[in-house]
Write a structure and sequence with these properties.
Layout lengths: L2 H6 L8 H20 L3 H8 L3 H12 L2 H18 L9 H20 L39 H5 L3 H7 L4 H12 L4 H8 L3 H18 L5 H26 L2 H5 L2 E8 L6 E3 L1 H10 L7 E9 L2 E9 L6 E12 L2 E9 L12 E2 L1
Parallel strand pairs: 1-6
Antiparallel strand pairs: 1-2, 3-4, 4-5, 5-6, 5-7
Helix pairs in contact: 2-3, 4-5, 4-6, 5-6, 8-11, 9-11, 10-11
Length: 353
């Protein structure tokens, strides 16, 4: 209920906060007992409120929306089968995170880490025409905004953070996320990972050092708050309009001097205003076709979904999710995640008129 709703309800015949909590605990216990007896509907009621945050945790671990969904489904099957072994010593939420983390560790160890083009080699100084996708690389994927996500939750799915933790071994990645994001103690993490508390503390020390070197300050959440919604809309609209009109001058006005532009799964990427402008003027601003853009939020950041219509096409088709990383009120990074497969997670159509 909203604050206004609470004020209007003063004196109404409704349970108080403590009474509601007790009622919720009783319903939770009843569903837990039913689920242990094989009631899958009761199990669904238990886990459904936690599904979004568990999916976000799997994404942080794996760097892929699709891998995260697969891992979550696998984890929930494991949890369903292992529910009779849940003793109730901790919360169901903590236990589900334990199951999900172990599932993600299995996946991470078998598939390796996700990468961006900047991880594979130096930047290109001029536009590479006819660049072809690298299909043997596991690429980082964008993460669709979760409605109502808290400030801290958005920070921990920002592109720089997720990309940084991908550079950690799987056990360090899990330890860092459980400790820094979810608030597990070192002793609890040791139990999750079947290791010692000393090993966890050592892993945390190494992980923090790697991430601190790779994650810029301030975070995108802080940057977006500092520039305000009005200026953010101007930047996003200006970027989309410049692409749609083929206006290089308008695009340049929005970029930092050291801007980067990468386009997974294409391996080549560009750093610095000269290289980025050379690429932009020779490819998206002139030779691709007609663009249309839809503002979205990806990884807690400003983004636009780009639709492209070729010269002989009759409609604009899904092309890329462009995630914009800002420094101040300028664009410091454009990461264009190419592929129509990304659009479904954002609830977007695959074509526009």
């Amino acid at each position: 209920m909203s604050l206004l709703g609470n004020l209007l309800c003063t004196g109404c015949d409704r349970p108080g906060r403590a009474e509601s909590s007790v009622m919720g605990d009783l319903l939770h216990s009843d569903d837990l007992a039913r689920a242990r007896d094989g009631d899958d509907t009761a199990f669904t009621r238990l886990v459904e409120p936690l599904r979004r945050e568990l999916h976000a945790h799997c994404y942080r671990m794996l760097g892929s929306t699709h891998d995260a969904e697969d891992a979550l489904q696998d984890a929930l099957v494991r949890a369903w089968r292992g529910l009779p072994g849940f003793t109730g010593r901790g919360t169901l939420r903590s236990w589900l995170y334990t199951v999900a983390t172990r599932t993600c560790l299995d996946t991470a160890r078998s598939r390796g880490r996700r990468a961006l083009p900047v991880d594979l080699g130096p930047s290109s100084t001029h536009a590479v025409l006819g660049d072809t996708p690298l299909t043997d690389v596991a690429w980082l994927e964008p993460f669709a905004e979760q409605p109502g996500a808290a400030y801290e939750q958005r920070e921990t799915v920002e592109l720089a953070f997720v990309a940084a933790v991908q550079h950690l071994p799987a056990n360090q990645r899990a330890a860092l996320l459980l400790f820094e994001v979810l608030g597990f103690s070192a002793a609890e993490i040791a139990e999750v990972m079947d290791t010692s508390t000393a090993s966890v503390n050592s892993a945390l020390q190494r992980a923090r050092r790697v991430v601190a070197e790779r994650v810029p300050v301030p975070s995108q959440q802080r940057t977006l708050r500092m520039i305000g919604d009005a200026r953010l809309r101007e930047v996003v609209t200006g970027y989309a309009t410049a692409l749609e009109r083929g206006d290089a001058e308008a695009l340049v006005a929005l970029l930092t001097e050291d801007v980067t532009w990468s386009m997974p799964p294409l391996p080549h990427w560009y750093r610095g205003l000269d290289a980025v402008v050379d690429f932009a003027t020779r490819v998206p601003l002139s030779t691709c076709g007609s663009w249309r853009h839809v503002p979205v939020t990806a990884n807690g950041q400003a983004a636009v979904a780009a639709y492209l219509r070729g010269d002989t096409a009759v409609e604009h088709t899904a092309w890329a999710i462009n995630v914009l990383t800002l420094r101040g009120d300028r664009i410091a990074e454009v990461t264009s995640f190419i592929g129509a497969a990304h659009f479904a997670a954002f609830g977007l159509p695959t074509a526009l008129p």
